[in-house]
Amino acid sequence: MKVRQLFDPESSTYSYLLWNEKDKEAALIDSVKEQVEKDTILINELGLKLKYLLETHIHADHITGAGDLRKHFDAKVLVHKNSDSKCADQLLNNGDVIHLGSENIKVLYTPGHTNTDISYVIDSAVFTGDTLLIRGSGRTDFQSGNAGDAYDSITQKLFILSDSTLVYPGHDYNGFTVSTIGEEKQYNPRIGNGKTRKEYIEIMENMDLPRPKMIEQAVPKNLQCGLS
Amino acid sequence: MKVRQLFDPESSTYSYLLWNEKDKEAALIDSVKEQVEKDTILINELGLKLKYLLETHIHADHITGAGDLRKHFDAKVLVHKNSDSKCADQLLNNGDVIHLGSENIKVLYTPGHTNTDISYVIDSAVFTGDTLLIRGSGRTDFQSGNAGDAYDSITQKLFILSDSTLVYPGHDYNGFTVSTIGEEKQYNPRIGNGKTRKEYIEIMENMDLPRPKMIEQAVPKNLQCGLS
């Protein structure tokens, strides 16, 4: 599977274009509305057939480009069933498999940041959304987030992947682009190196973060695939 | 060869950590002074022996972290001979080969943005500095830049690499992280799709760009490996 990492500087969001080089079937994870024109040009230049617009969760910090991209391509929007999204073409469950030609993307339900979090797994890599960030993790204080759930998702579903699995997060604010499961197990300051569930919950519950600026607009819009 | 792309948001600079997984020998291309602490931690976490601090050119838009990193590691600073750098441990020429254990990095002299430009080539990828950017190219209006030289470097030294070669640029301002030689040959708006040398020179000579804010500080400091 080919992977192309894309960046939205305004929201520090990473999007990921995945494709099967043989038959050119593609999926775009976590598109950003402001990047739709750029993404459309790139997908066309690469000669890809965009089949799926995948969301790692209902975002609170940017508006998805999925609805706009669906107009340009014959693609389906897929989000987790807990979102109860009315605009999605398919609601995903843990264990679902998405096919790009002969290659697969596996759906792992990894809640905690929200209750709609999916990590998408391919052979060599996992796209972790905001569940696991590089040397960090997504906040758990809104949108049905739960620090205990996040701990369980990360330790029981992500940290059991092979150490060499590449970790592609939904955001990065520190100049990192990619990590590995092995690194995060060892060096993630919040949850690596054997941190207990209790320690993690305490860290996450004492973060005292400001409310995301865009949450009031972004969440309802993202439940409409980014359209009004 | 393992590749880890790193980003400095302030200057939109990409640095690249390359290493041979077997013996852990590493090189860092285009380090950034503000990122030295982060890079040092990462290199230590990955258990790497940093051997080389490579520059793609004498930068005008950020200050290199090479001098600072050399203090932390037993590493050599390598830049092109035209820089006449007094602080470098080795001055590079076209065709030189840098060894990381059993793996090699090849030096391609690709002038045009400046007269000190090097592209570093490994099996699967080329690190093009400011010579070739994703759907763009580095300006050629200062530091002995020359649009004709840039055209020759790109078309005669980079575009002859295999189409699947990954292109890792020195900067990106548009949300791209990587491209391929095949894509740039076809879609680079300045030099792709058979643009002539004359057309390229005309484009580059009519860009009317402002003088880089940091050039007066950065160039002399970078000739001192980023140290005062």
User: H/E element string of chain A?
Assistant: EEEHEHEEEEEEHEEHHH
- Mean pLDDT figure of chain A: 97
Percent helix range of chain A? 10-25%
CATH homology-level superfamily of chain A: Ribonuclease Z/Hydroxyacylglutathione hydrolase-like
Using only C-alpha atoms, the radius of gyration of chain A works out to 16 Å
Structural class of chain A: alpha/beta
Largest sheet of chain A at a glance? 6 strands, mixed
**Poorly predicted residue ranges of chain A:** none
Just give the CATH class of chain A.
Alpha Beta
Q: What is the CATH topology of chain A? A: Metallo-beta-lactamase, Chain A
Number of helices of chain A: 6
Tell how many strands the DSSP assignment of chain A holds. Answer: 12
Q: Strand order across the biggest sheet of chain A? A: 1-2-3-4-5-6
CATH architecture of chain A: 4-Layer Sandwich
Largest interface: A-B, 18 and 19 residues
Shape of chain A: globular
Please indicate the percent range of residues of chain A in DSSP E strands (runs of 2 or more): 25-35%
Q: Provide the number of structural domains of chain A.
A: 1
Distance between the termini of chain A: 34 Å
- Looking at how many chains there are and whether they match, the oligomeric state comes to homodimer
